[in-house]
Amino acid sequence: METENDTQISEFLLLGFSEDPELQSLIFGLFLSMYLITVCGNLLIILAVSSDSHLHTPMYFFLANLSFADICVTSTTVPKMLWNIQTQSKVITYAGCITQIYFYLLFAGWDDFLLTVMAYDRLVAICHPLHYTVIMNPWLCGLLVLMSCIFSALNSLLQSLMLLRLSFCTGMEIPHFFCDLNQVVEHACYDTFVNNIVMYFAAVLLGGVPLAGIFYSYSKIVSSIRGISSAQGKCKAFSTCASHLSVVSLFYCMGLGVYLSSAAPQSSHTSAVASVMYTVVTPMLNPFIYSLRNRDIKEALKRILGVPVM
Predict the structure, then answer these.
(1) The pTM is what?
(2) According to its UniProt record, where is this protein located (predicted)?
């Protein structure tokens, strides 16, 4: 039997970080700066890869797709938060919340799969260098990116459909700066056991399987590098993996922080801060990690910006 509170609400309230007007201005400026840096940095990576023929290789093809996914992950959350601060509103519509969850899960999952694909690319490059161009042909590269996107899209579609089956009570306040799936499910009126099972299963599948693939790839890479006789050869082989390892470590450490903070009791503020690190800071740092540690990217960016290449 339905109760009075069992109504289909039309909007949610995103509480954000603070209601202090002075802090609101500071938060707006900080997030706007980070968002612009993220978009510009990743767009420069995409432009460098697409415009420089020397970067038309599988590794940089995957990097360009990773940069695109990073832009999209940030763009699903930050612009709405900036708009709410600017208009002094906390409202997001029910349809807008579901849409935000769908695209956030889509691009965050795509990020995850792309990192695994990039680890496989490094495995082939180091362990099978003579067959690299044959194995990592354009058809396979395109297929890997497409399958990564499809798997992520299926998960985000499933999670969104599972969310649509829930009924919510009135007065929905989400202590976050965007519609986080866990926070929204917690506010459902009825039993969310099935939704929680699906979420945990997806977390294990999308977090554990790609991470296992990365560990497997690097175990093979380490074994191959140990077989190289010269120290210079070992350093050269490892240097091709350094940027990817840095991004993987940052991605999974931040993701683990989000999971632990959301699992802890009374941790809405901590969870929001951890989500900022995961959804904003990580995509912002990725272009710097790749450009600062990669000579080819640095030279391509210098040519684009009109800086003489030494």
Answers:
(1) 0.89
(2) Membrane
